[in-house]
Amino acid sequence: MSLNVLNAHTIYLAMFRYDVFQTWIKGCLHCHSSNSDGLLSPNDVVKYYKDRGYGLVAITDHEKITIVKKCSDVIVLPGAELSRGKGKIGFPYHLVILGIDDEYILKIRDPQEIIDYVNSLGGITIIAHPYWSGLVHEDLMNIDRYAGIEIYNTGCDLEVAKGFSTVHWDNLLSNGRLTWGYAVDDAHRYFFPPRDANGGWVWIAVNELSIESILNALRNGHFYSSMGPKIDELFISRRQIHVRSSPFHRVNIITANGKGMCIDEITLDQVVDIYRRGKLKGTFDEFEIVQEANITRVFLRHGGFKARIARTPDGIQELDVQFDFSKYDYIRIEIMDRKGMFAWTNPVNVHEL
């Protein structure tokens, strides 16, 4: 089997080192076929994603488990999307179950019982599109033991502008619920506008190309989510954050309450302009700009905060921040490119670093 994989990522976390994994596989975790309400047949769904560089496809038809046989070059993960229960506002939970081909699951009506049954069989459950579903924080706290939530859903974004659920995510994390964030498509139309496919995916780090290894990675947070940007290096500790990726416009260091920080090209341009006009005195303890061919390197220090930034004509490519992050409860990283496309890392519990 020759899968669509990538071996170039070298991501490091103090909790675990991604570089020990040999392979990165691009995955679609939520899409629909003509077996429910999608426009493409199951085989055509797999082909669609294979042609776009995916090595993993999970067809999650509504209330049905779709099995694709004799598929080469792509791992197809069995799954389904189930609508169950009722949240505080009155709307149901949508549960994406992955790695399950036992149709008994379709008969279970209680959301928590579904999650527990899926876990007992070695699968995982993701809470689909919380914003679109009208779920509130209480709803997500009332159920437990799911792997995470969809933080970006392409279809929900393009159809009704309710695709981002990162606020739901941060509320869970701030409440001590360490959950993972998944970017997905929820594709139905594929080729017909608004095109709801190939807009959100995960890059999964695995040490072997098997369903078991993929499920373990998705269960343990060994992946990052993206709409486009690629993260090449990531290091997080109590004293340092280092990110190198495809060119980006902005990086957000997210944590609980009003803490955290963001660094973007606009602010950087403003600081550089003030520096060149000689009006930066007293703002920073140290500030330096070095031009190396087409790379502009900026170093700044203010008290216990230090930052090194490498910027190309296409955007910021590397960031290193030294700061006392030990009082943060968790840290997750977002990068956004000039097209407004995001990539998200999974959260790290700072107290365990």
Describe the structure.
The structure is a single chain. The chain has 353 residues and is α+β, with helices and mostly antiparallel strands. It has 2 domains: 5-227, Alpha-Beta Barrel (TIM Barrel); 233-352, Double Stranded RNA Binding Domain (2-Layer Sandwich), CATH 3.30.160. The chain has 8 helices and 21 strands. It has helices at 42-50, 111-120, 130-133, 137-142, 154-160, 166-174, 211-220, 265-276, and strands spanning 5-6, 23-31, 56-59, 75-84, 93-98, 124-127, 148-153, 180-184, 201-206, 223-226, 231-236, 240-248, 250-254, 261-264, 286-292, 295-302, 305-312, 315-322, 330-336, 342-344, 348-349. The chain has a 15-stranded mixed β-sheet that branches. A 6-stranded antiparallel β-sheet has the order 11-12-18-17-16-15, with helices on one face. The longest helix is centred in the C-terminal third of the chain and has 12 residues, at 265-276. The two termini are 38 Å apart.
Features:
single chain, 353 residues, alpha+beta, Double Stranded RNA Binding Domain, six-stranded antiparallel β-sheet, 21 strands, globular
Query: What are the secondary-structure elements, in order, as H or E?
Result: EEHEEEHEHHEHHEEHEEEEEHEEEEEEE
Annotated CATH homologous superfamily of the largest domain:
Metal-dependent hydrolases
In whole angstroms, the N-to-C terminal distance is: 38 Å
Derived from helix and strand composition plus strand pairing, the structural class reads alpha+beta
Helix content: 10-25%
Mind sketching the topology for me?
Blueprint: E1 5-6, E2 23-31, H1 42-50, E3 56-59, E4 75-84, E5 93-98, H2 111-120, E6 124-127, H3 130-133, H4 137-142, E7 148-153, H5 154-160, H6 166-174, E8 180-184, E9 201-206, H7 211-220, E10 223-226, E11 231-236, E12 240-248, E13 250-254, E14 261-264, H8 265-276, E15 286-292, E16 295-302, E17 305-312, E18 315-322, E19 330-336, E20 342-344, E21 348-349
Parallel strand pairs: 2-3, 3-4, 6-7, 7-8
Antiparallel strand pairs: 1-2, 2-9, 4-5, 5-6, 9-10, 10-20, 11-12, 12-18, 13-14, 13-19, 15-16, 16-17, 17-18, 19-20, 19-21
